[in-house]
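Blinded run. Sample ID left blank on purpose so nobody reads anything into the name before looking at the predicted structure. Input follows.
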Amino acid sequence: MGNKLKAGQVFPALRSRTIHGRELAIPDSGRWVHLQFRRFAGCPVCNLHLQAFVRRHDEILGAGLEEVVVFHSTDAELLPYQGKFPFAVVGDPLKELYKRYGVETSLGAILNPAAWGAALRGNLARDKPKMPLAPNGGILGLPADFLVAPDGTLHSAHYGAHADDHWSVDEVIRLRNQAP
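Blinded prediction complete.
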């Protein structure tokens, strides 16, 4: 795994394509970027979490933020459900970006009781993707969140300890509002 990033350092540039084929560059000289690393396309915890970002997308944009979400799934696995999201989604089935930015896996991703409530709510949700029996990249991925300033400075970083350990919309906006 790569080294974990720390607030205050220069964010290592990310160049990729979204699942819709759009070029993506972070840092983005015009906007602050909240970069999330999630698990796999059918992850019930991830998709429950991301529904708040979908519902509050206008508020996120109003705070001057661009949302970018990375999954360790193929574009084909992501397009049927995440393809409808109003923000950029990137497929990284080989986990190259995960390795580069120090995003890890752990048995604690699913065995930590703190993740169980979200897993249950996510599985009971009506509007959800089908969870594959053997998801690409496995089920042990941990989430991570990065807030990147337009000049490339990493303002804040969070590496999750379990599948439901991530920033909320309120936390992302609060962190952005604390920034100069």
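Unblinding after everyone has recorded impressions. Strands lie at 14-17, 23-26, 32-37, 65-71, 88-91, 144-148, 154-159.
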